[in-house]
């Protein structure tokens, strides 16, 4: 390896290692955070057990029970609203200390998690569209499609009778979209935990009905990872006994599923929906832009270096760039997000926040595409110019810096802005690891208001406005560079 290639390689290695260490910020896995708080994961769309009110506060049976028990037992916690599936994986990988999310206690889960004493006995109910008079029993489901939510008692019950009654399953990550699918006619029925469905039907937007009697269901429990945090389980059990004795437990149930309880949302229309949730939507958009900017800066540094590697005359640097690009362009972004957030902490025994994991995921993915943009921009410059500079005695690095790169940058800038737009849209995938960006914010609002049509229109318009501004900027820069 000659002198200029060694210099380039060492500089790139130092910058790359420094970037990785600056974003990882590992924390040792322990029972509590540095502030002495337990990290408790939960779902985000499972009213009346956990959901977000109009003020952005998480409320519901589980939330109020956890708060009452923590107060009774004198421990502090930090809530991590992740979504049910993400919370399960986070608990298993020790990213959180405990989980409360209307989680059924099953023999299969007992093999992986330790549970508290049951705090709620659920049931299962089938719902169909209000206009559907053809399905009145399970026998009528033959050849039909049934919607279920991942990890619920309703899902487990539907799976247990699927072969007997011959229906297909359509699985969802949140209840609101499941209900919407039935109302739209894409699914013929839905199985849901009875208290969740009963609460949802109090909202006048939901045009569903229950044609059958509820089935017995499972018990809900608070969970910790197997063999971890036994003191947390003990405090939860002791606190549960106390709040049942002093009447607080029944008071919480009556608030959400008592005879006088009501659903939290009213029909407020399109403009009312925007007005009521504007602060949440702006925060979600801010997180989306923040994630995009942070990831794009890191990805640009790594991607430019890799792009230079790929055009270097050194075969070793070419191989490094090619391996990186092939690897991270070949892994779907959602798989990469799960690997970074759940697998890496288990392999390295560290705790990683969802935000840091999201930035790392986007950076790794985007850097691969930026590397190709840089390579394409450099190759678009007539190679005869580099050969002429070298024949005049100019070193390779100086020739690249003074002659090739200034021309290549003009070619690359519009593509860089386009890649920024793509990265911005890719942030929506990070909702699967619990990051409350714009798309996840929309899901949370829908779980409270059951206004999926209007809310997704609002979210789409917000993305469209931002992306249109960036596209206009790209077009302006392209015209300006062509005229220079």
In helices, the fraction of residues equals 55-70%
Backbone CA Rg? 27 Å
**Given the C-alpha coordinates, what overall shape results?**
elongated
Could you tell me the number of beta strands?
15
Q: Residue-averaged pLDDT, rounded?
A: 83
Portion in beta strands: 5-15%
By secondary-structure content and strand pairing, the structural class works out as alpha/beta
Number of helices: 17
Largest sheet: 6 strands, mixed
Q: How far apart are the first and last residues' alpha carbons, in Å? A: 38 Å
Low-confidence stretches: 1-31
Structure description:
The structure is a single chain. The protein is of the alpha/beta class and 484 residues long. Strands 8, 9, 10, 11, 12 and 13 form a six-stranded mixed β-sheet that branches. Strands 5-2-6 form a three-stranded parallel β-sheet. Strands 1-15 form a two-stranded antiparallel sheet. Helix 10 crosses helix 17, helix 11 crosses helix 13 and helix 15 runs antiparallel to helix 17. The longest helix has 43 residues. The two termini are 38 Å apart.
